[in-house]
Design goal:
The complex is a heterodimer of chains A (366) and B (124). Chain A contains 8 helices and 19 strands. With 366 residues, chain A is α+β, with helices and mostly antiparallel strands. The N and C termini of chain B lie far apart (31 Å). Classes of the chains: A alpha+beta (366), B alpha+beta (124).
Chain lengths: 366, 124
């Protein structure tokens, strides 16, 4: 099926993407830049070497007011224990305890309301679900009037400091209201690349001006969704709808670290009994193919006797790794680093090894 | 004297005497983006017109390369295994994929010539 481009939504940076020569593709109901003239390889390597600017305005932003701790009804994260000025990663769970989405939530200093960011493709469903489950306790207000930029890479802090003096004091997973180039923003020291960097939420009418100012810095290149995907895969980060979805629970997804200690002890989240009941049947792992051929999503994983033991959920080529890499699920007994497996690529068994993630070390500024 | 023809799947084929060389067009290379891996056919492999003959992978995705005409593979550009970026740098020259002997030259003749292919690309 082809979706007519006039049915696709656009971010406030659409005209800028075209001006920069982006190749636009449909993604999550939006027309988004998959790459700019530099191309995916250069964009990826530039982000790891200097700084890249991403338009992630398609993602869902919202505020939660009232009894914000009621968010614990739908996430196993420790919401009540989140300190002021901090952001945290959480899973949004279905009633059965499987993964409905992953998201970020923040407690801004001196503010009662929480600030949430959810995935683009799932935002309408997530917002309706959260609103319904928290009825009577808290009110969710989606903010489609806000745009979102990500500035990622080892020089991101130097660049942003020029336009938001003092911002480099913010360390990893911290969040604050700040001013960028004269405009009010919510800035967190987070991202989806494994690099140091920031996510910058702005009023949609201000984002183009700020994006142009950042792109005008010599260290910064615009980066498309193609490199965003290869960067996050090298960093071992999940892509919702591929590596995690409603068929997986947090234990299978190897995301138990995102469940608060208090929540694990209280077992007070959907599906807790099953999720915390010993080893899962399957588990998410990293995979390094021995050769040069990438194994794409859907590739079957076999043990050395040829029995199918799992499937690749994200796979491709890592420009910084200079080789192929993949993420997938295998039977629990095989989910051990160093285990030799075969990837069934075009009917041939291609040797590969279950490998630790991230594939490329994180370089967060803690 | 060599002749070059093109397919609507964006392969080119150049006939020099008895042997033909096959690759992907500049348009195809640009659409794929950075090529990171190629899988080449073995010598002696029989291929049919429009049948799968090789694989090219960019950072983004894998694509099949089809044989423009039926015949037998006589050699492959193994340089691409170590330097797949040659496909982007010189798709219609050093970035060739494989050589083949044609079964029937008529299959070659009926493919698009350079002018027809240029017009075809304009419609895309």
């Amino acid at each position: 099926m082809t979706i007519a481009s006039d049915l696709l939504r656009r971010t406030p940076l659409h005209a800028l993407h075209l001006e920069l020569g982006a190749k636009m593709v449909p993604f999550a109901g939006y027309e988004m830049p998959v790459q700019y003239p530099a191309g995916v390889l250069k964009e990826h390597l530039h982000t790891r070497e200097k700084a890249g600017l991403f338009d992630v305005s398609h993602m869902g932003q919202a505020f939660l007011s009232g009894d914000t701790c009621a968010l614990e009804r739908v996430t196993p994260a420790d919401v009540a224990g989140l300190k002021e000025g901090m952001q945290r990663y959480g899973l949004l769970l279905t009633g059965a305890g499987t993964i409905k989405d992953d998201f970020m939530f923040s407690r801004l200093a001196g503010e009662a309301d929480f600030y949430l960011v959810v995935n683009a493709d799932t935002k309408e469903g997530d917002f309706a679900y959260i609103a319904e489950k928290l009825t009577g306790a808290a009110t969710l207000t989606p903010r489609p009037d806000r745009a979102l930029l990500a500035l990622q890479g080892p020089l991101a802090a130097d660049v942003l400091e020029r336009h938001s003096p003092g911002i480099s004091q913010l360390t990893f997973m911290k969040v604050a209201r700040a001013v960028v180039a004269g405009h009010a923003a919510i800035i967190s020291r987070t991202g989806y690349t494994g690099e140091d960097g920031f996510e910058i939420s702005l009023e949609d009418s201000k984002v183009e001006r700020v994006a142009r100012i950042l792109l005008n810095e010599s260290e910064v290149l615009p980066i498309g969704l193609g490199a965003r995907d290869s960067l996050r895969l090298e960093a071992g980060l999940c892509l919702y709808g591929h590596d995690i979805d409603e068929s997986r629970n947090p234990a299978e997804a190897n995301l138990l670290w995102s469940i608060g200690k208090r929540r694990k002890e209280a077992k007070d989240f959907p599906g807790a009994a099953q999720t915390l009941n010993g080893a899962p049947a399957i588990k998410r792992i990293g995979i390094r193919p021995d050769g040069r051929a990438p194994a794409r999503e859907g590739t079957e994983i076999a043990d050395k006797t040829g029995r199918i033991i799992g499937k690749v959920t994200s796979g491709g080529f890592g420009p910084s790794l200079n080789g192929p890499l993949a993420m997938g699920y295998v039977e629990y007994a095989f989910a051990v680093n160093g285990t030799q497996v075969d990837l069934m690529v075009r009917g041939k068994a291609m040797p590969a090894v279950i490998s630790p993630m991230p594939f490329v070390p994180h370089r967060y500024r803690r | 004297m060599s002749e070059v023809r093109y397919t609507d799947q964006h392969e080119w084929i150049r006939l020099d005497g008895e042997e033909a060389t096959v690759g992907i067009t500049k348009y195809a290379a640009e659409s794929l983006g950075d090529v990171v891996f190629v899988e080449l056919p073995a010598s002696g492999k029989a291929v049919s017109a429009g049948g799968e003959a090789a694989v090219v992978e960019s950072v983004k995705a894998a694509s099949d390369i089809y044989a423009p005409a039926g015949g037998t593979v006589t050699g492959a550009n193994t340089v691409l295994e170590k330097e797949p970026s040659k496909v982007n740098e010189d798709p219609e020259g050093a970035g060739w994929f494989f050589k083949m002997k044609l079964n029937d030259k008529a299959e070659f003749v009926k493919l698009m010539d350079a002018d027809a292919y240029a017009k075809f690309v304009e419609t895309l």
